[in-house]
Amino acid sequence: MTNDKLTWLRKNLFSTWYNSLLTVVCLVLLFWILRGVITWATTQAQWAVIQVNLRLFLVGRFPQTLYWRTWIVLAIASTLGAITGGVFFGKQQLIKRGIALFALIIGVLLVVLPLDFTYRLWLLLIAVLLFVGFWLGGKFTKVLTPWSLLWLLSFPVILWLIGGGFGLQPVSTNLWNGLLLTLLMAAVSIVLSFPIGVLLALGRTSNLLVVRWFSILYIEIVRGVPLIGILFLAQVMLPLFLSADVRLDRVLRAIAGLVLFSAAYMAENVRGGLQSISRGQIEAAKALGLNTALVVLLIVLPQALRNVIPVIVGQFIGLFKDTSLLSLVGLVELTGIARSILAQPQFLGRYAEVYLFIGFIYWVFCYSMSLASRRLERQLNQ
Q1: Of 170, 202, 226, which residue is a domain's last?
Q2: Are residues 217 and 122 in the same domain?
Q3: Residue 165: φ, ψ to 5°
């Protein structure tokens, strides 16, 4: 241990006798907790509930004969995600230790996961696509717009592969379960709620009285209602406003509820960014001859969105976690499939193992969004 580290420890943890005592007590408590957790995880926990039901956690009751579609979807998302990661982090971040750790994780998954030989080949192919995507993204550092368009263009292809039609066997939305449904609902809701929230924020700051009051009423009414109430209204009340011949799918109604709820909060986040822009910039732009639309699109909105990136991503993370409430309205997403697995006779009472596993899944995706937002904010500030 270097002298700098010893100095830091002495200054921050052992500066006085009571700080030293508190540090020792915290270390003993931490050691006691970690020992208990490790002992439980290695000797008492029954991780067979995860291994046996892994497919249910991931894709639910999606037809097993059509798993090749989900693998293609995973390959598309992994490739675009790797390219985006390469753009964000650049070539300098692809160091040998990171590549070695990634290879180790893939090797462990190939050995541990209960997959057939075909699925192991799929997993190996996806690992290769991830490497290629990182390399390709590193070649196009700071060129983000084309990859954003590719993400948007991939959405219809992914929905077509999952739902079928147009030459593929249709798959009922009742069979869209587990992590597949969670990611699909979160992605669609995020993509739709963001532009609606931006429009509501602009509407609330508009000089048009009707537009401004409509935006204010919508935002304040929706923000005053809990999400579970919005979801129940979307499932029960929305069909009452439609004709008897029109029957919206449950998934579409749930997406409508999530989008309507998230858009109101997104509008307030964006409005905070709009208020951070000085009036002088707007007046200078108008003095140069720009009309109101160009001032908003080219000057105000880009700066406002950049200023509130952490808040916007926080809203996205909250929306991703809010999908767990869909199990209360009859949709079997990740939390709902966990409840179904816990009802199996051989796995009654295995709450800790199941909820730790789905909690880890939620953490991985939420932390990934947080990490990407910090990198994007750092790039835009340069």
Answers
A1: 170
A2: no
A3: 90, 170
Please list, residue by residue across 172-194, b when 16 or more beta carbons sit within 10 angstroms of its beta carbon and e when fewer do.
Answer: ebebbbbbbbbbbbbbbbbebbb
User: What CA–CA distance (Å, rounded) separates 27 from 250?
Assistant: 50
- Please list, residue by residue across 128-141, b when 16 or more beta carbons sit within 10 angstroms of its beta carbon and e when fewer do: ebbbebbeebbeee
- Mark whether 187 and 284 lie in a shared domain: yes
Residues 287 and 364 grouped into a single domain: yes
7: containing domain: 3-44
Residues 164 and 184 in one domain: no
Q: Locate tokens 């180790």: which residue? A: 104
Q: Quick one: 267 and 127 in the same domain?
A: no
Same structural domain, 166 and 278: no
3-class state of residue 224 by DSSP: coil
- The answer to whether the CB of 248 falls within 8 A of the CB of 257 is no
Q: 143: helix, coil or strand?
A: coil
Residue 147, phi then psi, degrees to nearest 5: -75, -30
Cα(114)–Cα(41) distance, integer angstroms: 20
**Amino acid at residue number 273:** G
Asked if residue 310 lies in contact with residue 377, where contact means CB atoms within 8 angstroms, the answer is: yes
For the chain (length 382 residues), average pLDDT per consecutive 10? 73 80 90 90 85 88 90 88 73 51 65 70 82 75 65 87 86 89 92 93 89 93 91 82 75 90 93 87 84 85 88 92 88 90 87 91 90 79 67
For residue 3 the two structure tokens come to: 């002298």
**DSSP codes joined into one string, 287-316:** HTT--HHHHIIIIIHHHHHHHTHHHHHHHH
Same domain membership, residue 80 and residue 29? no
- The count of domains in the chain is 3
Query: Which pLDDT score is estimated for 189?
Result: 92
Domain shared by 296 and 334, yes or no:
yes
Q: How far apart are the first and last CA of the chain?
A: 35
